[in-house]
Fold:
Amino acid sequence: MKADKLHDYRVRGSIHTVKIDSPDSVIPKQDTDGAIRGCIKECYVKKHKSDGEVEEVTKIKVNPNDKAGTILAYSEFLKTMQEIQEAAGITDFEYQRVDMAFDSFGKNFYHRFAKLHRYLVTCLAELTSANNVYCTVDLFTNEQVSVAFKTRGCEAECYDKAHEMNEAGDHSRLELRLKEMGKRDHSIDMAELFVREWANRLEKAISKANTWQAQLHCNDALERIYTSNKDAFPVRFRSLTDFLIYYQDCIYSKRQMIDLLSRFADEVSNPVYRAEWHKKHYGIEYFSQKDLRYVVAEIKRAMSVYFDN
Structure:
C-alpha cells in the first residue's frame, strides 16, 4: 500500500453495545426514564438449572451511547452504565459481551480500505479457525458493504455504516467483539480483559506465519474456483487474467500471487514474470507486514485513548 494512503488510516474507538446478565428483577423498560429507556435494547428473563435448582437470570442488551450521543471516554461509559443500573433497578450484573467500534469518517474511507480490512479479518479468521466467515454486497451495485468472521468467543466485522443507515456522507466502522465473558476470569476488569485479549489476538493474526497461512487458504479456494469454472458455460471469465482481476480482492501479496499462478502450470510457464506483468498492467493492490502493523497500531492507539480517559 502506498505510504500516503496508509497515513490516512485513522480510527476513533468507543464501546458500542454490551450484553449483561443480572440476578435482579429489572424494572420494566416502559417504566424507566425516557433517556434511559432508549439505551435498553433487549431485556428478558431466562431460566436455567444450577445444582439441580431452577434459577432465573435477566439478560439485557445496552447501548449507553443512545442516552446523549457517542461516548468517547471509558470513565463516561462507566458513569452512564451506573445511571442505567440505578434507573433499571440493577444492583449486580456480569458482562457477557462487549462490542467496541472503531469509526472513521474520511472521504470514501470504507471503500478505500475495504481490501485492507478484508485482509485483516481474513487473518483473524485464519487464526481462530472460524467457520462463520462472510462478505456481503449491495444487491443492486454488487459493491462490498461488510466483511466478518464469528466464533463462539469473539467476532470482528467491518462495514459501511453510512450504507447500513442509508445516510449521506462517509462512515466506516470496524467492530471488535468479545463474547462469553462470563466464562473468563471474573477477577479481571472488563476493560483490561478486552484490551488484553484483542491486542494479543491482533498481534498473532498479523504474524508472518499466520498471514501466509491465510493467503494459502485463499489460494486453495481460488484454485478450486478457477479449475472448476474455467470451461464453464455460461462463461464466468474468459481467461486467467479475467479471473485474477475479478478476484483481486482475495490476493494480498506478490508472494501469494506467485504461489497461485504456480498452480496453473499448463497456462503459466513463469509465475514470477506473470505476477510482475499483471501488477504492471492491472495495478493490483498488495500489502506488506508493515501495512498490517500500522493498522493494528492505530487500532490499539484508539483503544488506549478510550480506556485511558
Q: What stands out?
A: The two ends are 32 Å apart (CA to CA).
